[in-house]
Amino acid sequence: MTERLFAIEAGVGHKPIVFLHGFGGTHSAWNPMIAHFSRSHHVLAYDLPGHGGSLNFPDAGPVKLAVSAVLDDLKDRGHAQYHLVGHSMGGAIAALIGLGKPDQVVSLTLLAPGGFGVEINTRLLHRYAAARSESEVRRSLEGMVGFSNEVSETMIAGFVDMRAVPGQSEKLVGIAQKLFVGGKQGAIGRDKLAELRMPVKVVWGTQDRVLPTRQAHRLPGHIAGHVFEDTGHMLPDEIPSAVTDLIAENIR
After folding, report:
1. Which residues contact 241 (CB under 8 A, 6 or more apart)?
2. Alpha carbon of residue 219 to chain centroid
3. Against a cut of 0.85, is the pTM above it?
4. Three-class SS of residue 107?
5. What pLDDT digit, counting tens, does each position of 25-49 carry?
6. Domain residue spans in the chain?
7. What is the rounded distance in angstroms from the CA atom of residue 172 to the CA atom of residue 26?
8. Other residues' Cβ atoms within 10 Å of the Cβ of residue 252
9. CATH of segment(s) 7-118+186-251
10. What angle, rounded to 10 degrees, do the helices at 89-100 and 63-76 form?
């Protein structure tokens, strides 16, 4: 149908803040941050290939394809430099863009990013990809948040509505099969992460049951690590105020 990524764009200014959601999500994961930053910055929040408004983007699945798709779209929109904020799979995409285009990326804020180690809870993610009903979505999301944290009804409804679109659930299942081969994920070596020269923040929760918190350990010294107690994998939803503050600190 279209080879252009869907994105929500708001605010004005140079060097936009670009938001990249995690696997199985959409731009709506960033709604509180979009509302906050669009008052003073240009904001761009994508639906990544195979997700939401970009459901029919060709050949969705490989992370490298998503990297190329985002870069092509930013070029088409005339953005030569930008701040990147990525969660989970979106964090891996942001980190790879930072490595490939260091002169274009002004800062990186990575929330429980994929690719910082091979370990990943593939059983949970495959269930999450296949979840369609309210109860299935709720059960999957409850496995992703901190032990005592609630999953909002708004978040559940958003995921259910997304999966109600014809072809969306099947697409997520197919992407999961491509991303998580042999129960592992592809990893970016610490030597490669050491090449990042823009300001980088990595944020994790101690109760992350998707990607273990130890993947935030032993990062190159110039990367700032922020680890939150009683917090799981869904950082934009669980600690939105803290995430907003850290983004603001990093883009200054």
Report:
1. none
2. 19
3. yes
4. strand
5. 999 999 999 999 999 999 999 999 9
6. 7-118+186-251
7. 12
8. 7
9. 3.40.50.1820
10. 60
